[in-house]
């Protein structure tokens, strides 16, 4: 339905905008699950692929600073935050929550990230993402329109910059 598609666009715009604002290049954003099913970057679902060079370097080095964990957390929880900001609740985001849990429990075999800490990190990140989206609402709205129109990543970045 058009309403459901719009929510997908808004959800992905949350990821895209926060990734961009936090310095994580956006590689791709696909909204069509059928196209995503043929692209291995998307694991069969619509989504936004971003790259955090600082996190990648830190993981290779075996020591991930809290700032990298926080940045990743905000971007991953931003889709849920966008939905909650616009509609008062989020329908999507289970895969996002699972991605956050996977990262946190992989850092030191899960020793420092128990359920309570993961839950607090997710809440903090979603709140931070919501504040970011609220503070940059004109850019978010312009990005939603660009994504809904099927624009390229570069054109979407221009929409953010020109808002």
TrEMBL record:
Coiled coil ranges: none
| GO MF annotation list | ATP binding; ATP-dependent peptidase activity; metalloendopeptidase activity
Judging by the UniProt lineage, the source's domain of life is Eukaryota
Name the residues that span the membrane: none
InterPro entries recorded: Peptidase_M41-like
Alphabetical GO biological process terms = proteolysis
Q: Which PANTHER family match?
A: ATP-DEPENDENT ZINC METALLOPROTEASE-RELATED
What is the designated name of this protein? Peptidase M41 domain-containing protein
Q: Which organism is it from?
A: Emiliania huxleyi
């Amino acid at each position: 339905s058009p309403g459901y598609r719009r929510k997908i666009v808004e959800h992905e715009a949350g990821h895209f905008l926060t990734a961009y604002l936090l310095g994580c290049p956006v590689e791709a954003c696909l909204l069509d699950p059928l196209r995503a099913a043929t692209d291995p970057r998307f694991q069969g679902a619509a989504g936004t692929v971003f790259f955090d060079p600082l996190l990648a370097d830190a993981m290779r080095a075996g020591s991930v600073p809290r700032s990298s964990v926080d940045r990743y957390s905000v971007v991953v929880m931003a889709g849920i935050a966008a939905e909650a900001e616009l509609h008062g609740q989020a329908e999507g985001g289970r895969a996002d929550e699972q991605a956050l849990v996977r990262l946190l429990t992989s850092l030191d075999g899960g020793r420092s990230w128990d359920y309570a800490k993961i839950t607090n990190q997710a809440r903090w990140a979603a709140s931070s993402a919501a504040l970011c989206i609220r503070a940059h609402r004109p850019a978010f709205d312009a990005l939603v329109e660009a994504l809904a129109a099927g624009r390229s990543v570069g054109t979407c970045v221009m929409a953010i910059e020109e808002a």
